[in-house]
Each structure stands twice: as structure tokens, then as C-alpha cells.
Amino acid sequence: MKEQLLTKKILKWYDFNKRPLPWRKNVSLQKRQYYTLVSEFMLQQTQVVTVIPYFNKFIKNIPDLKSLSLAQNKKLIKLWEGLGYYSRVRNLKKTAQVIIKKFKGKLPCNLEELLSLPGIGNYTASAILAIAFNKQYIPLDGNIERVLKRYLYLKKDKEIAKDNLIQKKSIFGLSSRSSDYAQALMELGALICKPTNPECKKCPISMNCKSFQKKDFNLTKKVKKNKEKYFILKVYKKNQRYLLIKNTKFNFLKNLTIFPMEELSKPKNFNENLNFKMSNMNMNIKIQYLKNSSKFQSPFWIDQKKINNYMLPTFTKKVVKYLEKS
Ligand code: SF4
């Protein structure tokens, strides 16, 4: 395949500048597919730097698809603790189980089958196809989107609409080194065309970059409004122990251990004790201390001194910390 100059420049830059990320190690094809699957699930909502230690620990404990499909949920949640968005790890296990059962233990290599797996949407499927299978896909992640918007100086609402960006990414061309090329574009966004202060002097494509020519690197963003939510968080304390329950009520932190909570809709004179940001939700939390816990059928009583020994979401740990300080 004859690559266009832009593609060549980006790949050449990547060859000299790529980070030695653990999922980029030279491993067998099967391992590479597993590493890509795990890293792409982790990277869905989290930055590369944060993911690295989690990825290493995960792979050390759960080295392949088979062990992932058989892993205990408790163990998985513990390994994911701190990364947040726990539905990802639940879906990752379900995906491993489907692959073992339906695809003879082999990660599918086509879009349709990948999209049938739990937790895999268009972006993750394209990333897997490009990175693990060297197929000619360019997954449009936040980094690639930024390079594209700046390179073509896309600012207007219409221009930055997802459909338009998907169409415009053809400007990058394709390469027979699809795996490297997808990662090269992501790396260019992460290391050079950064959200603030892009390092255009080091950029391999600065010559034809419209933002560079105009010296205007501001990006127009669609404003995502955070939802204000109000909760009463109920604290029952007995002999230095807090009562926690399994969350079957709220969509966030589903099935994880939290304090009993109640959501209020637009309360008047709400004096919150705590604020917590989760996804696009601003949680305003008022603490209520209560005594009679007999209505809870299977509560967990956790010892505040041994908080780190429990498998708890960061949210719950932060609440305990707050309660201990106040
Ligand atoms: S020249 Fe600057 S703005 Fe343009 S793509 Fe490169 S880093 Fe981004």
C-alpha cells in the first residue's frame, strides 16, 4: 500500500517517540489480543498514566481470557478498586465468558461480532480491530479527535459533530501498519497535540496544520452540563463500625457496597455536608446520623480502622474518611 506523506510522517515520529506501555510489549498474538482487550476496557474512562499500574497488576493476577472468565467477582473488583466505573470490569468478565463459550476462546476479529460483546461499543471495537488485528480502522478517541480538529481547524458546531469528525478522519489516510498507525495518532494527541500548550515545534505535521498557521489552538467543546443531584446519606455507627449495604437501588456503583442513601428531588434549603463528583453528576450529600438499623436485612458492619482491608468503592472510603474527620 502506498502511504501518503502525512501517514509516513506520523509513523516515523511514532517509531522514535512512542512510550513503552505495558500493553505494547512484544508478546504472542494471543497475548496481544488479551492485552488489548483489557487495556481498552481500562482506558474507556481513564488516562493512560493511571491505567499502567492497574494493567500490570491485573495481568499478573489474571493472565489470560480463561482465567478472566473464571475469576471471582470479589477478586476482580479488588483489582479494579480505584479505577472507578466498575461496570467495565463486570462487562470485561462477561465478554471473556462469551468468547470462551461462543468463539472457542478466540477474540473475534470482525466488527459485528465484537459489537455483540458486553461493554464493547463502536470505539472499543475499532480500537481492538486496529491494535490487536492490524485492520485498517482509525478509532476516534479524544486524542485523535483533538489532532483532527486542530489540523483542520474545525470549530463550528457542525464541524465538530461526531458524524463530521468520522468523515473527516479520512484525511489521515491508511497504513498497512494499522496497529502502529492507530496508536501513533493517539500518541501524537497525548504527547504533542495536548489539550493545552500543544508542542507544535515537535509536531511532525505542523507544516500543513491550520491551527498552527493561524496560531489559534483553542478547541470548541460541546458543553456537557453536570447534573446536580441531592442525597441523604444515612450513617449508623456501632462500636466503631459503620453499616453498609449492597447497592441495588442506584445505577451508579451498582452492586457495590455503599452507605444507605436516599435521593431527593430539588430539596429546599439543602445544606450539604459533602460534595462528590461522579461521572457527569454533582452529588450533594447531607449526612444523617441514625440509630435503629433493624430494618436492614443483610448489612455489612465495617470497622473504620480496617477500612483498607475491605473491598469498597472510592466513594464509600471517602465518606468514611469524612466521617472520621468530622
Ligand atoms: S501543529 Fe500543533 S496544533 Fe497542529 S497538530 Fe501539531 S501539535 Fe497540534
Note down, in words, how this protein is organized.
The structure is a single chain. By secondary structure, the protein is an alpha+beta fold. It folds into two domains: 5-214, Orthogonal Bundle (Endonuclease III, domain 1); 227-325, Nucleoside Triphosphate Pyrophosphohydrolase. Helix content is 42%, strand content 13%. It is built from 13 helices and seven strands. It has helices at residues 5-17, 29-43, 48-61, 65-70, 73-80, 87-102, 111-115, 122-131, 142-152, 162-168, 178-191, 210-214, 314-325, and strands at residues 227-238, 241-246, 257-258, 261-264, 274-278, 281-290, 300-303. Strands 1, 2, 3, 4, 5, 6 and 7 form a seven-stranded mixed sheet that branches. Strand 5 and strand 6 (281-290) form a beta hairpin. Helix 2 packs across helix 3, helix 2 (29-43) packs antiparallel against helix 8 and helix 8 (122-131) packs across helix 11 (178-191). It is globular. The model has no long low-confidence stretch (mean pLDDT 93). Iron/sulfur cluster binds next to helix 9 and helix 12.
Q: How many β-strand stretches? A: 7
In CATH, the topology of the largest domain is named Endonuclease III, domain 1
CATH class descriptor name of the largest domain: Mainly Alpha
- With helices defined by DSSP (H or I, 4 residues minimum), what is the helix count? 13
Q: Taking all residues together, what is the mean pLDDT?
A: 93
Tell me which ligands are bound: iron/sulfur cluster
Low-confidence stretches: none
Largest sheet: 7 strands, mixed
N/C terminus separation: 65 Å
CA-based gyration radius = 23 Å
User: What is the CATH architecture assignment of the largest domain?
Assistant: Orthogonal Bundle
